[in-house]
Amino acid sequence: MLTLCQALNSGLRRAMEDDDKVLLMGEDVGRLGGVFRVTDGLQKDFGEARVVDTTLAESGIVGTAIGLALRGYRPVCEIQFDGFVYPAFNQIVSQLAKMRARTGGRTALPVVVRIPVGGGIGAVEHHSESNEAYFAHTAGLRVVYCASPDDAHWMIRQAVAGDDPVIFYEPKRRYWVKGEVTTAGPPLPLDRARTVRPGTDVTLLTYGGTVATCVAAAEAAAQEGRDIEVIDLRSISPLDVSTIEESVRRTGRAVVVHEAPTFAGFGAEVVAQVTSRCFYSLEAPVERVGGFNLPYPPAKVEEEYLPDLDRILDAVDRVLAA
Fold first, then answer.
1. pTM above 0.90, yes or no
2. In angstroms, rounded to a whole number, what is the distance separating the alpha carbons of residues 211 and 145?
3. Torsions phi, psi of 80, nearest 5?
4. Mean pLDDT, residues 275-294
5. To the nearest 5 percent, what fractions of the chain are helix, strand and coil?
6. pLDDT at 124 > cutoff 90
7. Cα angle value 284/286/292 (rounded, 5°)
8. Hey, which residues does 22 pair with through a beta bridge?
9. Is the peptide bond preceding residue 238 cis, with omega within 30 degrees of 0?
């Protein structure tokens, strides 16, 4: 059994053992092992040339990683907290995401940008944001989101081994959740959704930190005879629309759940895909549950902001009553 944090560490270690062109870089990733200790022990074992403590300059971290990737390396950048990624926004969307298309496919940029994301740890704005919609909207980037130790281990290895730039989200409030990590190989391709809990009445479509919340909601609903399917999207760009479509066609009802504000959030794209592909199978309008369209609140009231069991079950009630 490993925590999600330990599973990421083991995945990064294996990626570095498999390819000496893989290197890690970021603020405090080396001697300290990262704020959340995801990279703990890696600098000691692989040296300062492969686990690099950088200056406090996210634009410099990503810009340097782009240059390294052009020279054949596979950099893995850590952005210390989700809200710190904005200084590197230009490098990510204007350079990292565009280079492969700009060169007609001749130049790959295998850069992974790791971002601890979301709330639930008693932090504040800039430390608790959910900014995946910005990057999912940017063509040329893969955007993935692990939710379990098994996925954390295998998804980070798959992301590092691929030739596309990847925004790799890690739900920080799940860092200390324990689970089994398989040894036989990756359970799924990087861009495939997972059916976490099968059901027949309603499909809950979610990812990241809210996967466990949705599973808890489904288990609570089962006590009242409601059979809810929970799908962890895992990859939000590209999106596994086939798995979504198959589930919603079968259940006839869907609720999309994520931490980010619902206004122009990524859930709106999921709703659009479901509505266009499953229109004649839907028994009710698709509901969304997410954060409010406000700056992230002070820690003492963040539980009022984050989607919880009651808000999810209320949405389930609405689609079942329609």
1. yes
2. 11
3. -60, -40
4. 97
5. 40, 20, 40
6. no
7. 135
8. 74
9. yes
Model confidence at 184, pLDDT cuts 50, 70, 90, reads: confident
**Residues 6 or more apart in contact with residue 253 via CB below 8 angstroms:** 201, 202, 203, 282, 283, 284, 319, 320, 322
pLDDT in tens, 186-212: 889 999 999 999 999 999 999 999 999
d(CA 192, CA 296): 30
Q: Say what the pLDDT of residue 247 is.
A: 98
- Round to whole Å and give the CA distance between 88 and 108: 19
For 207-244, give one letter per residue: b (16+ CB within 10 A) or e.
bbbbbbbbbebbebbeeeebebbbbbbbbbbebbeebb
The answer to whether residues 181 and 157 touch, using CB atoms and an 8 Å cutoff, is no
Q: Residue 84 and residue 173: Cα distance in Å, rounded?
A: 17
pLDDT in tens, 62-83: 999 999 999 999 999 999 999 9
Alpha helices per DSSP H over 119-265: 132-136, 149-161, 211-222, 241-251
Return the structure tokens found at 152: 């954390």
Q: Which residues contact 243 (CB under 8 A, 6 or more apart)?
A: 192, 193, 195, 231
Under a CB-based contact definition with an 8 Å cutoff, are residues 136 and 93 in contact?
A: no
Residues taking part in catalysis:
127
19: tokens are 């390819």
Q: Which two tokens stand for residue 8?
A: 């990421």
Residue 185: per-residue pLDDT: 87
Which strand ranges, in their side-by-side order, compose the sheet holding 74-78? 51-53, 22-26, 74-78, 112-117, 166-171, 142-145, 235-237
Distance CA 300, CA 122 (A): 7
